[in-house]
Amino acid sequence: MYVLSVAPLVSGIPYEELSYFSKEELHSGDLVAITIKKRICRAIVINASPLKEEKQSLRHANFRIKKINRVIKKSYIHENLWKALDKSASYQLIPLGKSMYDLIPEKMFSVDADFVQPENARGFENLLLQQPYKDRMTRYKSTIRETFAKKQSLVIFFPTISDIEHTQALLSFGIEDYVVPFHSGLSEKNLSLSISKLKQEEHPLLILSTPSLVPWLRKDLGLVVIEREHSQYYYTHGDHGYDIRGVLVRLAKETSLPLIRGSHMLSLDAQLLYKKHEAFEVMPLHSRNDAPLDIVPMHDENQSASPYLSHKTLATLHGIKKAKKGHYFLYAHRKGMYPTTVCADCGTIFACEKCNRPYVLHKIGGVRTYVCHECEHVVSVNKDNTLACRHCGGWRMVTLGIATTGVEEELKRLGLPVFVIDSERTNTRTKAKKVYKQWKESQYAVLIGTEMAHNLIEECDGATILSLDSLFSLPEYRTDEKIITLVTELAEKVKQTQDHNGRLILQTRLKKMPVIRHLQASSYVTVYQDMLREREETLLPPYYIVVKATFENLSDEMRAKMSQAFDTYVLDWFEAGRGITLLFIHIKEATWSNDRELREKIRYVLESGKPQVNPLHFFM
User: Fold this and answer.
1) Burial of 468 (0-12, 13-18, 19+ CB in 10 A)
2) 69 in a domain, yes or no?
3) Suppose 372 and one of 67, 177, 377, 420 were both cysteines; which one would form an S-S bond, judging by CB atoms 3.0 to 4.6 Å apart?
4) Of residues 119, 110, 103, the one with CA closest to residue 213
5) Domain identity same for 448 and 516
6) Is pLDDT of 62 > 60?
7) What percent of the chain has pLDDT over 70?
8) Peptide bond into 211 cis (omega under 30)
9) How many domains does the chain have?
């Protein structure tokens, strides 16, 4: 008899580990079926111990251990992959089952396949490819040929499905039969075809995938690539949200595969590895700033005919209308009409009563309606319901900011064909792709969109970022990095040919902000150096990890105990209002990655605060 600790591979189960017993000996990585509240679920064995070794602890247990239903498959996950997943889960303070649930698609459980250690793996290497998009694609084509010549497969991971769809056509030419896409947007039929090809095809394959364990079905896997390595879309969401890039890196390392991180601007994590000589360039890093960027200070545009558009943008749009040719993109950071409403008397922001987030003004069914994008609380404004400040009672409420619907109304009078993509109008990928296709097929048109549209666009004749100023109001340490990568990535999409040299226009009222100066630098080398120095001085990633915990109605006694437990580290307490207290613990990255005992202590002490490591947002 053996006592097992297992991780359920099912959503909605709030347990990290459960105990069961088995008559036969099992090992870490075996796949079994268990029963949870009359529901049969799959689970991965975390560890197994002979019953005689656990008798003492079981005598004092306040629960009865049940038997597993059956063994589905032994050695389902190779021990090297298991080590990678286990170390990653410990590093990120997430349940091991959560990580596996994210990386193993449901369809895989009905397939007779194992996740294996690749044969003839040449050893782990950290390689960097920082080049413009077209140059990266050219390099990937050469790399694919080289890898195929060695009779090895390779996987290129992407943060979004749109990225795979854009890239597949570029990389598939001549090898169409040996390219396997794998992502959640595939139909049931195409998903089955991809899995069958991964299992049965003897020729080396190019696998294009969102983060997944699936490429490790191939024994001939020889190279791992993380494309758009800088992207925030590699973060998962929810209470246990984490950076899945770390898991992919660990998988490559534990299975002795070389890893390429590719981007037009690599993340600061990659830049630090390069600085410390722990990562090496595939080809000289492209750091020259050659983006076709024009920065327009909007405070100098007082005489503009539009509150949203600069003279330069208006002139470009009038040129498109006159020539009846061109596809222009207007990037708005927020959906709706206006992202912020404030009292002109006291300056108080009109915020949600329930969660204290600013309301965003929309027009729904012809009625001006305020919607909280956090809890979806709604306030309608009509003749019988006027708006007043909740702080001073004043009626002089002023709308501020730029969002998609407000810009659309402004453009209607210009007589240009206008299309809109945001999570309100196009709440599915299918709807967004349909609108995008209509825009591209028009003789000339303007597309207004949020980041949802930005991810779909492959190329445009010109673009204007209406404003990113609202990002500066967010107390997030990644803001500057996000702005630089967003602006430079969009600049790459502006068409540059012999007959046409498009421009990207950035409208701002905060021209003196450091990040704006960074965007005007001739080289990004000094920009990286400045940002890394600032991160080190402020005890932030990549030099430090930051553990965030969120507590409701935290007692002074518990707060004192936590402060004492971690008094050797830098702690920041923040009162977020409405009884919410945030705790941030700054720990050197090297200490964190090498001290499992410390990680277990933090997980145990901060359990009620749902601790997260380096979360995407500190104050959301």
Assistant:
1) buried
2) yes
3) 377
4) 103
5) yes
6) no
7) 88
8) no
9) 4
